[in-house]
Amino acid sequence: xxxxxxxxxxxxxxxxxxxxxxxxxxxFPQHNGKKAIYFCGNSLGLQANxxxxxxxxxxxxxxxxxxxxxxxxxxxxxxxxxxxxxxxAKVVGALPEEVIVMNTLTVNIHLLLGSFYQPTSxxxxxxxxAGAFPSDQYAVAAQVSKLGFxxxxxxxxxxxxxxxxxxxxxxxxxxxxxxxxSLALTMLGxxxxxxxxxxxxxxxxxxxxxxxxxxxxxxxxxxxxVPMSLHDWGVDFAVWCSYKYLNGGPGxxxxxxxxxxxxxxxxxxxxxxxxxxxxxxxxxxxxxxxPSKGAAGLQISxxxxxxxxxxxVSLEVVERAGxxxxxxxxxRLTAYLExxxxxxxxKGAALHIxxxxxxxxxxxxxxxxxxxxxKALFDYISENGVICDWRExxxxxxxxxxxxxxxxxxxxxxxxxxxxxxxxxxYLQLDSHSGVAANPSQNxxxx
Length: 447
Description:
This protein is α/β, with parallel strands linked by helices. 36% of the residues lie in helices and 14% in strands. The chain is built from 14 helices and 17 strands. The protein has helices spanning 7-15, 51-65, 80-92, 105-116, 134-146, 151-154, 169-179, 201-210, 230-233, 260-263, 305-321, 323-346, 374-383, 414-428, and strands spanning 26-27, 30-31, 34-35, 37-38, 47-48, 99-102, 125-129, 155-158, 183-189, 214-218, 237-241, 254-258, 352-353, 366-370, 386-387, 389-392, 401-405. Strand 10 (214-218), helix 9 (230-233) and strand 11 (237-241) form a beta-alpha-beta unit.
């Protein structure tokens, strides 16, 4: 990919973008009467235009048909999972029957840990990345403690090497091999929320299985962000939320992947609930639990139709856009952002990107680390209509932190990246002789 620092380059890239029109399918926050630049899809994706209509439809069906809505109409509520399984399977690289939408993310983490963390006196350890998202840390520690083990002994945290911010795949695999037969489970985030590093899930899964352990992943920052092949990699389970790159709404429902080697096993350990019962006999109300095949057998509760509506709308948008086109654009957008940041560094900006430079080891997020004064830059770009986020340093007490910037392929443009960089340049006063314009789109980024 070849870029330059001109506005015309950004505009040309937008003109060539096959997903450009999808930006019109989302609602954007406003800043001073104009559309804000929204680079925070790694935290909460935007609302698709069709969400209100979908919620209104559920309300209308409920009002007009009551309980009959489960069975009547072109899309009866009883089939809501089938509506989402196909598109979601493409997002994570699974068979449709291996994915299900249910509950919320941390609830599903606990449910899946309950199934896969079955420790013995000799095989009880769990490997995680240091600095994992707090929900993962809390859930694993709670499950370990509940079963009578000391988290300080049972949880092995793999840390970056001294002086580095990222993990090496060989270090993760070495930790797995060192744990050996004491390892019950490897449980990592697919992408580290802080650094934006994508882990080698296939290699980690293979290494875990080689010592007799399970491999599971929290894909909250990976689902809808990077291509995956969970089925082919042999991943045992994965969980994710719908509200980041999948635009499923604040606190929206969670997705689950359960490999069919487990999902098709009627003796697979799980918490049972009525909605996980085999569909053909669900309404017979029999005593003994007969699970549905696949991930559907994990369901405990009735689908939450009002909460599901934004998610199926967003998945329909993803289906029309095409996951491969999304991932291809994501690489171009992120590479363009990285290129322009490097151009600022060439002029003395000293912006430290801690996200991997290898496109295969990251998604759309770049994390810019600051030992100090980063919050002031973050406040400046926020005041000027850019929405991204600030996270305190999670591995030290230095007072530093990162600005996480995530241009999302479905609704962000190359010109928005250009304007964001122009704002940083304006704040850092790197081009004081060119006469910085009030409108960043009129402010040329000087090479």
